[in-house]
Amino acid sequence: MTMDATVGGRGVDVDVDENYRLQALAIISEVSASLADEDDVEEMLGRFLGTMIKLAHAEAGAVRVLTSDRKHLRLVGARGLPPEVVEAERLVPIDCGLCGSALRNDRTHYEIDLQLCAIRTGHDYFVHGCAAMVVVPLQHGGQLQGTYNLFLPECFELPEEVAMLFRSIGEHLGMALENARLKRENLRITLMNERQMMAAEVHDSLAQSLAYMKMRLTLLQDALADGENERAGKYTGDVRQALDEAYTQLRALLAQFRNRMDPMGLLHALQGFAEGFEGRTGIALDYQNRVADLRLSVDQEAQVFYIVQEALANVVRHSGATRARLLIEGDGDYYVATIEDNGKGGQGFFAIANRTGGFDEHPQLRDHFGLSIMRERARKIGGRIEVANLQEGGFRVRLMFPAMAIRAAS
Questions:
Q1: Does domain 2-184 have CATH number 1.10.1200.10?
Q2: What angle do CA 223, 226, 229 make, to 5 degrees?
Q3: Topology, domain 260-410
Q4: Across the beta sheet with 284-289, what order do the strands follow?
Q5: How far is CA 333 from each of CA 295, 297, 324, 378, rounded to the nearest angstrom?
């Protein structure tokens, strides 16, 4: 098909044939395919710049993205422009002249008079180097994400089919930019949550031991000042034992932070953790999974993983067990994770922790902080933890937590 256009007041024909349509469909298909797996969106925008230049029969072009303050457009790619123009166009206001008009109207804009561009940049390229410019907004959900600027060697109206194609490409690439922005935000949120979690873990374990040592050192100084050697010896032993406990807690925290969640999910993570457990600890672990799938959010999976990890770590540290069992099973809209061992039972870590809700002078009672962390994690996902001695000897920790839908409803 042909469409009428104007070149310097003269009528000309701009041919939009079948090959052009096929090329247009191929471009949209490539843009759509790139949305799912493109990591560097700005590189993708620069890659499509050459295609946009060809479609508009332009000789040069630039692509820009919105800055984080949403007040400027930053240049991320340019072709065919003089170096001085590229340098002058690194950062422009969002409401700048012709580009601002296109963005306000949310449509592809064609402009012949480029005097404003020449005045702003102080370069004669916009007077003698090109005759017209096409501005293609990149938008998604009514929000500007960036623009393509295409510089034409001659003046002619852009065919409607080309304008519609540019609009479609602009919407797709705008979606890609929005997805990239959301991905960056989610990454920031994830990092912040990780840091908050690490701070909470350090506060609930290592910081408590350090606070205990600080109090004991004050008492030790008083005893030394009063010449009470027996009392001073007791407090020295308390500090030494607390220091050993703090060192153990630090090693446990480092091990926990290194053992990150498997990207394939909780069940894969638990399977991998269980497979190397005996080799790392000398304790045989029987891992049984009786659910086909877990309907959990990512945060729920992470919390359950760390609870199980902490429970098994305490089996290693405190129970004296030779065997342990990890069982995952479903109970209606709730799941249950059970950790059992054949260790000391009532004399072990959790029995002491379960008998006390406080923190007295017995250094061993500081062990209850591990259970406090686990219970706090369970509370965050709407679950609870129960601990009990086994009749045949040993100890059980049971975590009960809801499926994602039930958690959301509650």
A1: no
A2: 55
A3: Heat Shock Protein 90 (3.30.565)
A4: 284-289, 323-331, 334-341, 395-402, 384-389
A5: 9, 14, 26, 16
Calpha distance 169→175 (Å, rounded): 10
273-331 pLDDT, tens digit per residue, is 899 899 888 999 999 999 877 888 877 888 899 899 888 988 887 788 899 999 999 87
Pairwise pLDDT comparison (237 vs 176), residue with the higher score: 237
Residue with tokens 């600027």: 149
How far, in Å, CA of 164 to CA of 24, rounded? Answer: 10
In terms of Cβ atoms closer than 10 Å to its own Cβ (0-12, 13-18, 19+), residue 132 is buried
> Edge-to-edge, what's the strand order for the sheet holding 132-140?
91-93, 72-79, 60-66, 143-152, 132-140, 109-111
CA dihedral 155, 92, 127, 60 (to 10 degrees): -50
What does 18-54 look like in DSSP terms, one character per residue? HHHHHHHHHHHHHHHHHHHH-S-HHHHHHHHHHHHHH
The pairing of beta strand 395-402 with beta strand 334-341: antiparallel
Q: How do the domains of the chain map onto residue ranges?
A: 2-184, 205-258, 260-410
Q: Provide the 10 A C-beta neighbour count for residue 273.
A: 19
- 340 contacts 396 by C-beta, under 8 angstroms: yes
Length of the chain: 410
The torsion of the CA quartet 104, 106, 109, 114, rounded to 10 degrees, works out to: 20
Kindly report the backbone phi and psi dihedral angles of residue 396, in degrees, each rounded to the nearest multiple of 5, phi listed first.
-130, 135
Q: How far apart are CA 87 and CA 74, in angstroms?
A: 11
Main-chain phi, psi angles of 111, to 5 degrees = -140, 135
Q: Which amino acid is at 97?
A: G
Is beta strand 10-15 parallel, antiparallel or unpaired with respect to 2-7? Answer: antiparallel
